[in-house]
Amino acid sequence: MATLLRQARLDMTAPWACNAAAARVSLTRAIVQIAGSFSVISAPRFELATKHSAALGGANFSYIETLWTEAQQNAACNAIHDGSSRLCRWLLQCADRIGSEHLLVTQEFLAEMLGVRRTTVTLLAQELQKRGILRYSRGRITILDRAALEACACECYNVVRNISLGAVPGVSRQSQII
Ligand SMILES: [Zn+2]
Fold it and tell me: Considering the entire predicted model, what is its pTM?
């Protein structure tokens, strides 16, 4: 599982489809977590564009590397880090990607993302709220103390953030989004 940047591409099957006639079947399920607008381009047109632009091709390659790194980091994170630190990591990544400290996510959704029970998310969010780190109400989360939230997150947050900062040229953390 990985979250995508604002400038991200979603379908990752094209780079490995060497034969243009090969069937292109996505093996993944994509979920839009935050509402917004987006553009669509066919895989053949996108591939053509990357072949004609070294900058776009390079940015695309860097992005794919970053996405795979994040997926691997998240797999390890889910296996070894506790729910609280993973919740903090996920909230920070989500905030970075939408460029806002206000998140519209339900506890059910967070539970699914983290692979824990909804009641666990409730307890974890209550604890963070009690400490003044965030405010949670009816599917709205506001990060009140980013530094404290970062201190509570596992190291995976910084690992993925540092890699993603170098992945998309000219994109700062504040301008990234899912
Ligand atoms: Zn982790």
Answer: 0.74
